Amino acid sequence: MRVESITLRKLRMRLKAPFETSFGITHDRPVLLVELQADGSTGWSEVTATEGPFYNSESIDIAWLVIRNFLAPRILGKSLSAASEARSHFAGVRGHEMSRAGIENALWDIESQQRGIPLSQLLGGTLKEISCGVSLSLQDSPERLLEKVSTEVAAGYQRIKIKIKPGRDLGYISAIRKPFPDIRLSVDANSAYTLDDLDLLRSFDDFKLLMIEQPLWWDDIYSHAKLQKHIKTPLCLDESIHHLRGAQAAIDLGACRIINIKLGRVGGYTSAREIQAYCLGRNIPAWCGGMLECGIGRAHNIAASTLPGYTLPGDVSASKRYWIEDVIEPEVTVTPQGTIRVPQTPGLGYHVRHELIERWTVEKEIFRA
User: Fold this and answer.
1) Which residue in 88, 93, 230, 307 has the most C-beta neighbors within 10 A?
2) pLDDT of 328 over the 90 cut
3) First CA to last CA across the chain, in angstroms?
4) Do 109 and 138 share a domain, yes or no?
5) For the CA atoms of the chain, what is the radius of gyration?
6) CA angle 87, 89, 93 (to 5 degrees)
7) Three-state SS for 302?
8) For residue 10, which of 42, 34, 26, 27 has the smallest C-alpha distance?
9) Across 310-314, average pLDDT
10) Share of the chain above pLDDT 90, in %
11) Is the C-alpha dihedral spanning 165, 135, 183, 256 positive or negative?
12) Phi first, then psi: what are they for 335, rounded to 5°?
């Protein structure tokens, strides 16, 4: 594959409903798409950074600058025998995993097309259908949250994750557990707590949660290891894990018993597969996290979720949960059993709606070899 051009597009997409976490409330989701041309083929991916550096140190505008000034010059005009080689070209750039993933994942799309096999198969995936979970934002009241949970349980989702933060935790968890004592229920704190909240976090053990996701600092492993020793509920690390070394350290230190693998956060498929393989070898359950992606990012998540070791339902849900219209067709749908059927055609397996992308684009830049 000789990389001929990279096109960046910033889209402004309106969520069907506001999504609130401990970071803040999102109404409009800016989406950064990568369209990459190589040997006459086109690959698509999504840079999953958010509008500001709140989830991690990246943002859409920062990613744009990093791709323009540092990543694109390292890959344009280069010939690669496999998409996984992209990582070596970016080795001199520290961090900025979401920016690097945006380019690498588009190359995997192209390699899949050129080889004539589904992207999931190229990655080494074994599943033809993946289990789905759903992530629910912070709600104004336990009653309102319970309404949302009831809807998603009825829709068949196999795991329910709720966002929490101090003041919106125990009462909300309890409100769900009373009518739904047996569902797979997890909570995601997005770093809203500290070790001073140990007694509160220990009380979560009473609710038989699947996991507590990233309760402490976004870049921490050590303190999570201290916390895990004092609570029964498994901790899951998200923001703290950027590469295989981080996953190895977290597992060896006992900082978590589950790992959330997000393609953008770890730098793309090559890194994600390394973490997945290591977790599988250590019997650590993994799952695919989400970043409110549009259909293009969601298609990549579906492919990743087919890999061995992704043993828990991920945050890969139907397009209609977030968007009135999505940028792919058919849109991602979930069966009544809470699963998504994995596309069996080369590439992403979905048709990219170019006319819709152009209509929603608010900024565009093309880099050529």
Assistant:
1) 307
2) yes
3) 13
4) no
5) 20
6) 85
7) helix
8) 34
9) 94
10) 92
11) negative
12) -70, 165
Q: How many domains does the chain have?
A: 2
Do 176 and 215 have their domain in common? yes
Convert the pLDDT of each residue in 339-353 to its tens digit.
999 999 999 999 999
Please tell me whether residues 192 and 296 are part of one structural domain: yes
Active site residues: 163, 262
pLDDT digits (tens, 9 = 90+) for 218-253: 999 999 999 999 999 999 999 999 999 999 999 999
- State both tokens at 294: 């549009």
The arrangement of strands across the sheet holding 235-237 comes to 133-136, 159-163, 185-188, 211-213, 235-237, 258-261, 286-288
Query: Does one domain contain both 133 and 278?
Result: yes
For residue 44, being part of any structural domain is answered with yes
**% of the chain at pLDDT higher than 70:** 98
Domain that holds residue 213: 122-341
Which helix (H) or strand (E) segment holds residue 131: the answer is strand 129-131
State whether the Cα torsion 60-65-66-68 is positive or negative. Answer: positive
DSSP H or E run through 33: strand 24-38
Distance, in Å, from the CA atom of 218 to the CA atom of 238, rounded to the nearest integer, reads: 8
One domain, residues 92 and 231: no
From the list 275, 273, 1, the residue with the least C-alpha distance to 123 is 273
Gap between the Cα atoms of 8 and 365, Å rounded: 5
User: Are 249 and 296 part of one and the same domain?
Assistant: yes
Closest CA to 43 of 299, 243, 362: 299
Query: Contact, 284 vs 259, CB < 8 A?
Result: yes
H or E segment to which residue 26 belongs: strand 24-38
User: Which pTM does this prediction carry?
Assistant: 0.94
Tokens of 110: 């192209």
- How far apart CA 366 and CA 137 sit, in angstroms, is 35
The answer to whether position 54 is within a domain reads: yes
Any domain includes 347: no
Task: Please report which residue ranges of the chain form alpha helices under DSSP H.
Answer: 60-66, 72-75, 86-89, 97-115, 119-123, 142-154, 170-177, 198-203, 222-228, 244-253, 263-266, 269-281, 295-304, 354-360
Separation CA 309–CA 216 (nearest Å): 25
